[in-house]
Design goal:
263 residues; 79% helix
Length: 263
């Protein structure tokens, strides 16, 4: 269990980067608009929202690299995207370049919302799954808190304070990338790729006392039980789908993003 806990916390750091990346722009907001003399609409839709556009794109297509290249490889690239975004944003000298690098970080944010919880859920025992996946959400909110504190501490560095604010994210991003190299591949993904022997090795790492052949059989049987053509939009899923949609919808409708981005 200790190994699973360490791996879960490591992967959940993607959530920390998500929260940090989302909120860190708030500290640089006024300086950037004054520096580049941007109109309110351009500043809001392009400079501030660059990461949001990337998040939408990343979340929409995250399933492709997560399934094709694996959870671990995708998580590594998330760290690379965050690192590039932080360093590139800090070195930018015009609003378009800045927005492009923020967009790259946004892609990392969007992909992390799919890849990180999927990985944690697939290495976790069923009775611990909810708690361990919850680390991702906790890390996200913790990242928001640290971003506000970081902005406050760096706000007195003069006209280039904004560069330090957005660039400091590169430190946790690089640390996360190095740490995530140490986690094993998801056994469930390995099984779907036909790499049974590798999956058995990972399953033994997770629980040396389990019958790995039985564990593999259960995962394979679970995949076979997936009904071809079944969709979340089917009538039997309507009520939980409405609940899930409503949570996300009213979260945004509350205006929380306005507070996070312009606080």
């Amino acid at each position: 269990m200790n190994k699973i806990l360490v791996w879960s916390i490591t992967v959940a750091l993607a959530g920390f980067l998500f929260g940090f990346d989302t909120v860190v722009i708030s500290g640089a907001d006024k300086q950037l608009q004054a520096l580049w003399h941007s109109s309110d609409s351009f500043h809001g839709w392009v400079v501030i929202s660059g990461a949001l556009w990337g998040t939408v794109l990343g979340a929409l297509f995250a399933g492709i690299p997560t399934n094709k290249y694996g959870r671990k490889n995708t998580l590594i690239w998330i760290g690379v995207l965050f690192s590039i975004s932080a360093i590139g944003s800090a070195l930018s000298n015009d609003p378009i370049t800045f927005a492009i690098f923020r967009f790259i970080g946004g892609i990392g944010v969007g992909v992390s919302t799919i890849a990180a919880p999927a990985y944690i859920s697939e290495i976790s025992p069923a009775d611990k799954r909810g708690k361990l996946v919850g680390f991702y959400q906790f890390s996200l909110v913790f990242g928001i808190l640290i971003a506000f504190l970081s902005n406050y501490m760096l706000s007195g560095l003069g006209e280039n304070a904004w560069r330090w604010m957005v660039g400091v994210e590169g430190i946790p991003a690089i640390i996360y990338t190095v740490f995530v190299l140490t986690v094993p591949k998801s056994p469930r993904w390995l099984i779907t790729q036909g790499r049974i022997d590798e999956a058995k090795k990972v399953l033994l790492l997770i629980d040396p006392n389990q019958d790995v052949n039985e564990a593999v059989s259960l995962i394979q049987q679970d995949d076979k039980n997936n009904v071809t053509g079944e969709s979340i939009f089917m009538k039997k899923y309507r009520f939980p789908l409405i609940l899930a949609f409503s949570i996300a919808f009213f979260n945004q409708l509350s205006g929380i993003n306005a507070f996070l981005y312009y606080a």
